[in-house]
Amino acid sequence: MKKLLKVFGRLMAVLLLTILFLLINAAAACAMLADGPSPVWQSRFVTALDETSALKFLPRLFLPDETVESILHPEPEQEVPDSFVELAFDEAGAAKEDDEPPEEAAEPSEEDGNVIELIRIREPTFRGAMLVVHDPSLIEIGTLDHFGGQGVLLSELIDKYGAIGGANGAGFYAPGGSGSGGSPDGMVIKDGEIIYGSAGGWYRDVMGFDADGVLHVGDMTGREALDLGIVSGLSFNVGPVLIKDGEIQPRLGEEKNYRTCMGQTADGTVLLLTIEGRRPNSIGATNQETAQILYDHGAVNAGNLDGGGSSDMYYKGEQLVYNDYMLKIPTAILVMPPEEGGE
Questions:
Q1: Position 341 in a domain
Q2: Are residues 93 and 195 in the same domain?
Q3: Which domain holds residue 218?
Q4: Based on the domain organization, do 56 and 87 belong to the same domain?
Q5: In whole angstroms, how far apart are CA 103 and each of 1, 68, 119, 121, 267?
Q6: Which of 14, 58, 187, 254 makes a 20 to 30 Å CA pair with 23?
Q7: Element containing residue 40 per DSSP (H, E)
Q8: pTM for the full model?
C-alpha cells in the first residue's frame, strides 16, 4: 500500500508540474504576443480574444488598459463627418445590378419569395444561416429593461418582444469573463433617442435604421448618428464595418470565428447572417468571408455584430446555428412577425 501511495504521489507531482509548465508556457506565449515586437500580432491577440466574450479580459492581464482600448477603439484617421457619405439606394443598386448570388453559396428554403426567407449557408470550411427580411420595418432592436445587471438569452429576448426570430446584437461587458453581460460595449438607439451611450461619444461600427427603414453604417459620434436620422440602432465597438456604399471595406481581418452580421440591399431588404464556428465541420468564417456573402446577396451597407460565443440565431423556434456557449446578452436584432397573410 505504501508503495502504491508513493507511486501515486509521484504521478500527482509529475501531473502538477506538467500543468504548471503548460501554464507558464501559455502565459509566456500570451506575453510575447501582447508585448512582442510585432504590432500586427499584438493587435490580432487583442481583437481575437475580445471576440470571444468569455476571454476578452485576458489581454488586460498583459497590456495596460489604454493600449487595449487604443487597439479596440482606434481614433478615426480623418474628420468623422467626411467618413459616412451614403449612396442612395438606386445609385448603389445600379453599380451592382449585374451581380448575381452564386447558386452554390446558399441553399434556399421553402419560404423563398415571401416577406421572410431562410437561406442555409454551406461552404467548405463553415456553415450558417441567413434571414432575408424584405420589409425593413420588421426589424427591431431588442434590449433589456435595464442595462447594467445580468443579460438574458437570445431566446428570452425573442419571447419578450413576441418576435418570430432574430440574432444576437452587439458586444457587451462581461466582468472577469463571466459570459453574462448586461451592459453593451457601445451605443444603443431606440425610438430616436440614445438609451445607452452619449451624443458626444465616438463609436465604431454603428448600424442604424432611419424612419424610412434605410440602414446607415459607419464610425461616428452619437450626435452624428442622430443627425443622420437614425431612430433604431446600435454599435459594435470591436467592429468592423463590412460594406459601405456598395464597397467591401479593406483590412477586415483573417481570424475565423463564429460570426453575426447585418446588411441591407439596394431595395431595402435586410440580411441577417450568422456563421457557426469552432466545430469540426464549421471552423468559422473571417469578416472578409461574411462580407463577401452579404455582398453576393446584394448588400450595399453592412456591419459586424458580436461573434464568438454570443453568435446565435433563431427562426420560428428553431436554433439555426449550433452554439453550446449560450451566453447572456443585452441586445438583439429581432425579426417581428409580418402582418397576417404577408409571410
A1: no
A2: yes
A3: 82-335
A4: no
A5: 69, 42, 11, 11, 21
A6: 254
A7: helix 39-50
A8: 0.70
